[in-house]
Design a protein that fits this description.
Layout lengths: L11 H5 L5 H9 L5 H11 L8 H20 L36 H6 L4 H24 L3 H7 L15 H13 L7 H15 L5 H11 L8 H21 L1 H8 L5 H15 L4 H14 L2 H8 L3 H13 L2 H14 L16 H4 L2 H6 L1 H5 L11 H9 L2 H13 L3 H6 L4 H22 L4 H14 L8 H4 L2 H11 L7 H15 L3 H14 L4 H5 L3 H7 L5 H16 L25 E4 L11 H4 L3 H19 L5 H20 E3 L4 E4 L4 E4 L7 H20 L4 H4 L8 H13 L4 E3 L5 H24 L3 H22 L5 H15 L22 H12 L5 H14 L5 H12 L6 H13 L10 H11 L7 H4 L31 H7 L1 H12 L4 H24 L5 H14 L1 H6 L1 H16 L12 H16 L21 H45 L5 H20 L7 H10 L1 H16 L4 H6 L1 H11 L7 H24 L5 H20 L3 H20 L1 H10 L1
Antiparallel strand pairs: 1-3, 2-5, 3-4
Helix pairs in contact: 3-4, 6-9, 8-9, 8-10, 9-11, 10-11, 11-13, 11-14, 13-14, 13-16, 14-17, 25-28, 27-29, 28-29, 29-32, 32-34, 32-35, 34-35, 34-36, 35-36, 35-38, 36-40, 36-43, 39-40, 39-41, 40-41, 40-43, 41-42, 42-43, 42-44, 43-50, 44-50, 44-51, 49-50, 50-53, 51-53, 53-55, 54-55, 54-56, 56-58, ...
Length: 1320
């Protein structure tokens, strides 16, 4: 308790030598103070060291102790027991014996007392047991002595004759006094050990008089005016421990039972309460001592003795004024013990006593001081709060709550459940306690009391029912919690964080409690708890998985109630009814309930709408609804039921409003729909629609295929349910759409509803056929488009009409898409194919579409992509190639890249529009030269008719070579971008929109390539994607777009399991593409110009540091540009190499003639000529090796040409580089197996002469670098090994001739000698 520790070197006697009675202290004062030695000796003998001695006297006393110990050790050899009389005060150290020679009392070893102060509990217990055993033995023998006076006279041991313990042996009287003094020591565990040592003798030895012992405790540990604060504290704590030992001994109860008129209990109560009244820190332990004693007492003794103690009555009277929580705790425990009202309780307890009266507003105001003053014992929680917790949350309420939630999961059962008086009283109690004490007293006070509020809640949590959470997590408490958590350097931040951790742990396995906590936190923070506290508390709670449908439904009901009822979230489900199964939806009769006044028009919503905070809370509710399904572990049927409830709520709140009131009852649906009294803002309505789109999109992704596989109909899938629900609400007279639509949008909505109905019938008629998936995907797209019209009126009506037309025209043949039905021939114009119109419609929807709608578009395209025409594919890839006009300063630096890269991969059908576009942008006409050389790359693409006026047109809307109708359908958004580009200086907005549009179209192309890997149109897609990839503007506009294109080419084209095998792609086209790829692979890297302005002329007065900074920025910018250019060059080179392998793979899949194969070989011959004759060629020899390894027939046909070019290479280092290519070709040309050895030998002989010329050229012009020389020797060694294995050593030596052999011997050494030796 904060007392000063004594040194471990103190002896057991020093523990008892803390205090003396007042009489001895008076004698001590009368002595001569100068006689210090005598004073020190007296202190040693009597053990009565005054607490007022200064440090010098203490040192002298310790020195005297050491001298006494030395003398005692010298006398250890003598076996005579020491005789102690009343005149000699000296006490021996080892043991105590009787003075009379006739006495046979056993010795009392003093080491028992030393062990009682040990920090080891087992040592203390053993010492106490040994001590009481020895004292029992001594007392028995003492009682048998005939002459007790002689023993008493010889061994007084500091005991006085009038201490009331005359019947006790001197040893026992000494032990009692020493034990009493020991409980006042703060050394180690002295108080615990000596208290235990005092308890046992009192409880076992009946000779000890309790009244005398209590007087001895008071006298021995009395407080004098000369004592300092620490000594006073030790005396008071010693008395408290002594009283505790006395209470635990049980002697008080035994004495009362033997004499019920005894006043010992009353005196004990007075003594304990009197002690508690002295100091605040004594109140709590004193009450615990008294409560422990009262628990063992009969109720009769409590009423007649404890309650009648004068000190107790006085203490209770002052409790409410001074704020005494311990008095309140004692009063509650005593009332629980006697179970009757008693006037001694005064104002502490109400009359009559009940939990309802105790927690009433009036009584809480009376005992408020007692409750809030319990903060003094922090960080420990006062014992009073455990009692109050049990009163607030009795077991009957907790059990009733569990039974209620177990048996009343449905709303109907909850409404019909009768109220329980116990529950009502407990609810009122917790509400009053939270409002009056928690909020009114603690949360508005100091940090310590706020800390106590958190501690009280943590104490309540384990037993707190879910229905009480809303009262405990009140508005003020949540606001306080938010304020603390928002400031990390707050003193209470750790306390609040710990509370949140415990709160989340409390609700993790209980959906009901989790929902209650989420609602309380969000309601009282206006939906901004996580934002204010910088945590993810609500997010993590809402993201936890719901194990049961009841938990999901409960969360959903609370969210809906929170959205509709702005004032209060009721405990039970509101009277809003959201049944799962609607009745027929043909017509409806309704009733409108006007709770307030007419709700007003939708145009007035934003002006008279809710506050920003309310909108934030409602927006959180809307965003949380779809997450319920995401984090729910439910079977498909249960998830569908929950999904329908969410769908209807979002539809009602987002799409409709009641014209005359806030509630509308639909008799047909047997439901009551409710809107907030304050009009919902347009922004919230749009958010509801967006979440509705997301809900339908998720249902499409997570649809259960079991019912379809089993051949079962799905009339109640989310789309059908939504469309019918929408139609039914539209027929209610008092319900209208949240916004008015123009004529075109109204017509489009009706068409889409009719289209969905037809599609639903067709889907059911198709059964398990593949067309059922097409119809199902279309139905989802129709629903998404309908919501998009309501979300963005005036933008999608035309697309909706076109989609309806596509669906109508496709019904006649179950979506076997007709090319033309002849209806458009009246105007001598060919009507576009339905599939082309569908593709155009999908493309026109992509720019403005939301993520759920894009998902539906991709699903539709997935099921229809096999029917996409060539024209449809070209329209998609042209979007990827589309580019805004580059800025004038970019044309010069990019024109060469466009010439060398992009046009290498240009295709014929793009020639006209490319010429036109380049003419508009100022590009050189020479950029189209390479495209002219690729005539017939994709012949099937030429079938599209090019408008005659395309060459003369300057309109961007016609530069793709399409007719007006097609351009209007597909490229409306692009035309809008170009127009915006002209009107803006930088065009950054238009560029970012175009990039976004391209990314969305790329998703469709990826689906097309995945579903049609062997389609000839894959080549068309590849050429256009590759051309877009090498276009410098692609990398400049978006790295994401560049990586996306590259990823699609790599994964969906080059690494596809199938390749285009259609013979319509001519070989000359493939050969031309192969040639362009090899040129691109050999293209050298050109450093990128920085494009920054030259440094300005020197100006006087300019800060040099600014110049250095500007130069650093220029240099850094230049390095970034160089790095980007190098990365782009590596990517293009990689593209060319992979494309080469892919084209060769296509060629190998065909049966080609010798003439056709010769065209392919000519391409590689030209590539080898460029490699050996120029330094600019960046062709990687590893790439050529890989080609020869994969296509041995190319290597074999070109081997002789390779030897010639290597021998006559104009660039010397190329000859050495090509050696690996030659040895690789030799390995495949002349395999070392016995079956083909003759053929290999014959083939080798044909090239032996050229091979010898190459060897002579190599040894005659050995490179200077050691690594290159080693490479020559290694390659020659491989050649010699192959020649030797084919027994052609003689022929090779003959071809080398004498001069060649002479040149080889010094250069090749042992390798050549081994070849010559193999000849023999």
């Amino acid at each position: 308790m904060g007392s000063k520790k004594r040194s471990n070197a103190e002896t057991s006697e020093e523990v008892e030598k803390n205090h003396t009675d007042d009489g001895f202290m008076k004698k001590k004062k009368s002595k001569n103070v100068d006689d210090t030695d005598a004073a020190a000796a007296a202190e040693t003998v009597t053990g009565a060291a005054s607490s007022g001695k200064d440090m010098e006297k203490k040192k002298k006393r310790k020195a005297s102790d050491k001298e006494r110990k030395r003398v005692a050790l010298e006398n250890d050899g003598e076996s005579k027991p020491m005789v102690v009389d009343s005149k000699s005060k000296e006490v021996p150290e080892t043991s105590i014996t009787a003075a009379s020679s006739s006495s046979s009392l056993p010795e009392l070893p003093l080491n028992y007392f030393r062990d009682l102060a040990s920090s080891d509990a087992s040592v203390r217990e053993a010492a106490a047991a040994s001590l009481v055993s020895r004292l029992q033995e001594i007392q028995k023998q003492y009682e048998m002595l005939p002459d007790k006076e002689s023993v008493d006279g010889g061994l007084m041991l500091e005991a006085e004759k009038n201490d009331g313990l005359d019947s006790c042996a001197p040893h026992l009287r000494y032990a009692l006094r020493r034990l009493i003094r020991g409980v006042s020591s703060s050394r180690e565990c002295a108080r615990q050990g000596f208290a235990l040592g005092l308890t046992l003798p009192v409880s076992i030895i009946p000779s000890i008089n309790v009244e005398s012992l209590m007087k001895l405790i008071t006298d021995s540990l009395s407080v004098s005016s000369s004592m300092k604060g620490q000594d006073v504290k030790e005396c008071l704590l010693g008395r408290l421990f002594a009283y505790g030992a006395l209470a635990r001994s049980g002697r008080l109860i035994e004495d009362w039972q033997s004499d019920k008129d005894s006043q010992i209990i009353k005196e004990f109560t007075n003594a304990v309460i009197g002690l508690a009244a002295k100091k605040r820190y004594l109140q709590d332990p004193a009450v615990l001592v008294l409560l422990g004693f009262v628990e063992k007492l009969p109720a009769e003794a409590v009423v007649t003795h404890v309650m009648e103690a004068p000190e107790l009555q006085k203490w209770f009277e002052q409790a409410t004024e001074v704020g005494n929580p311990d008095a309140l705790l004692l009063a509650l425990k005593l009332r629980e013990k006697i179970s009757v009202d008693h006037p001694v309780f005064g104002k502490l307890l109400p009359v009559p006593f009940s939990s309802g009266n105790f927690f009433s507003a009036d009584h809480l105001s009376v005992i408020g001081n007692c409750l809030k003053e319990s903060t003094f014992c922090q960080p420990r929680v006062h014992g009073l709060w455990s009692v109050i917790r049990d009163m607030l949350l009795p077991e009957a309420v907790i059990q009733s709550e569990d039974v209620t939630f177990a048996s009343s999961s449905s709303k109907k059962q909850k409404r019909n459940r009768k109220s329980n008086p116990i529950e009502e009283e407990a609810t009122n109690n917790i509400r009053n306690f939270s409002e009056i004490f928690m909020e009114g007293t603690l949360l508005s006070s100091s940090h310590d009391r706020k800390h106590m509020a958190f501690d009280i809640l943590l104490l309540l949590l384990p037993k707190l029912p879910a229905s009480f959470v809303q009262h405990v997590l009140s508005f003020k408490f949540v606001q306080c919690l938010m304020d603390i958590l928002s400031t990390k350097d707050s003193w209470l931040h750790k306390v609040a964080t710990h509370f949140l951790v415990e709160l989340m742990d409390w609700v993790k396995d209980d959906d009901t409690k989790r929902v209650a906590v989420i609602m309380a936190l969000q309601k009282h923070s206006e939906g901004k708890f996580d934002n204010f506290t910088h945590t993810k508390t609500v997010k993590d709670l809402a993201a936890a998985e719901f194990e049961t449908e009841d938990g999901c439904t409960l969360f959903l009901q609370n969210l809906m109630n929170l959205f509709v009822d702005e004032q209060h979230v009721p405990d039970e489900a509101s009277n809003m009814k959201w049944p799962l199964e609607p009745s027929s939806m043909n017509s409806d009769q309704s009733q409108t309930t006007d709770d307030n006044s007419e709700i007003g028009s939708n145009e007035e919503k934003d002006s008279v709408g809710t506050t920003g905070n309310s909108d934030i809370l409602k927006s959180w509710v809307i965003e949380s609804l779809p997450g319920i399904l995401k984090h729910a572990k439910l079977d498909p049927e249960a998830k569908l039921r929950v999904q329908k409830q969410i769908l209807k709520f979002l539809a009602v709140q987002g799409l409709f409003l009641a014209s005359l009131g806030t509630e509308v009852t639909s008799f047909e649906l047997q439901e009551k729909f409710k809107w907030p009294k304050t009009a919902t803002s347009t922004a919230l309505c749009k958010m509801c629609i967006e979440q509705l789109q997301l809900l339908l999109s998720n249902s499409q992704k997570n649809e259960n295929p079991l019912s379809k596989e089993n051949g079962l109909e799905q009339p109640d899938d989310p789309v059908s349910h939504f469309m019918r629900f929408l139609s039914t609400l539209q027929n209610i007279p008092s319900v209208s759409l949240f916004r008015s639509l123009n004529e075109a949008d109204e017509k489009a909505v009706k068409e889409l509803q009719e289209t969905e109905s037809k599609l639903s019938k067709e889907e059911r008629n198709c059964g398990l056929s593949a067309d059922a998936n097409k119809f199902h995907a279309l139905r989802h797209l129709v629903a998404q488009l309908l919501l998009q019209i309501l979300l963005h009126p005036g933008e999608f009506s035309q697309a909706a009409s076109e989609l309806s037309v596509c669906c109508d025209k496709g019904f006649s043949s179950s979506l076997d898409v007709p090319k033309s039905d002849g209806e458009g021939e009246a105007d001598d114009e060919e009507e576009p194919a339905v599939m082309d119109v569908l593709v155009d419609t999908l493309l026109s929807l992509l720019p403005h579409s939301s993520a759920p709608m894009r998902s539906s578009i991709e699903q539709v395209f997935k099921y229809f992509c096999q029917d996409v025409t060539n024209d449809g594919v070209l329209r998609m890839v042209r979007v990827i190639k589309k580019d805004l006009k580059p800025a004038r300063h970019q044309e010069d630096q990019d024109s060469e890249d466009l010439d060398d890269d992009e046009d290498l991969l240009a295709i014929e059908e793009g020639e006209d529009e490319e010429n036109e576009e380049m003419g508009e942008t100022g590009e050189s006409d020479e950029q189209t030269d390479d495209s002219e050389a690729v005539t017939g790359v994709v012949p099937m693409a030429v079938d599209r008719e090019v408008p005659e006026n395309s060459d003369d047109s300057d309109d961007d809307d016609d530069d793709d070579g399409m007719d007006d109708d097609a351009m209007f359908r597909m490229d409306t958004y692009l035309a809008q971008i170009f127009k915006e580009k002209r009107n803006q200086a930088g065009g950054e907005t238009a560029q970012s929109q175009l990039v976004l549009f391209k990314l969305r179209v790329l998703s469709l192309l990826e689906i097309y390539l995945h579903e049609n890997p062997g389609n000839p149109q894959v080549m068309t897609v590849y050429l256009n994607l590759a051309q877009a990839l090498v276009n410098p503007s692609t990398a400049e506009s978006s790295q994401q777009l560049l990586q996306r294109i590259w990823g699609i080419i790599q994964k969906k084209i080059f690494k596809a399991k199938e390749i285009p095998k259609d013979e319509s792609i001519e070989l000359r086209t493939l050969a031309s593409l192969l040639e362009k790829n090899l040129k691109l692979a050999a293209k050298p890297f050109k450093s990128k110009k920085s494009g920054v302005d030259p440094p300005e002329k020197k100006k006087p007065g300019v800060d040099p540091s600014k110049k250095r900074l500007a130069a650093w920025h220029r240099d850094n910018h230049s390095k970034k540009m160089q790095s980007a250019a190098w990365n782009r060059h590596k990517m293009i080179s990689n593209l060319a190499q992979n494309s080469t392998h892919w084209v060769l793979k296509i060629i190998d899949s065909r049966k080609i003639s010798e003439t056709e194969s010769e065209k392919v070989l000519d391409v590689f011959r030209n590539a080898l000529v460029g490699y050996f004759d120029t330094k600019k060629s960046q062709m990687k020899i590893e790439f050529l090796e890989e080609v020869f390894r994969r296509r041995p027939w190319i290597a074999h046909q070109l081997f002789g040409f390779l030897l010639d070019k290597s021998r006559n290479a104009k660039v010397e280092f190329r000859r050495v580089e090509s050696l690996d290519l030659i040895t690789e070709t030799l390995r495949t040309l002349a395999p070392l197996n016995e079956t083909n050895q003759e053929d290999s030998k014959k083939t080798m002989k044909a090239h032996l002469k050229k091979l010898s010329y190459l060897i002579k050229e190599l040894v005659a012009n050995m490179p200077d670098k050691q690594a290159k020389r080693a490479q020559v020797r290694k390659s020659c060694g491989k050649i010699f090994q192959i020649v030797t294995s084919l027994n052609l050593s003689k022929s090779l030596l003959k071809s080398l001739g004498p001069e060649g052999q002479t040149a080889c011997e010094p250069v090749l050494g042992d390798l050549f000698l081994k070849l010559k030796n193999s000849e023999h």
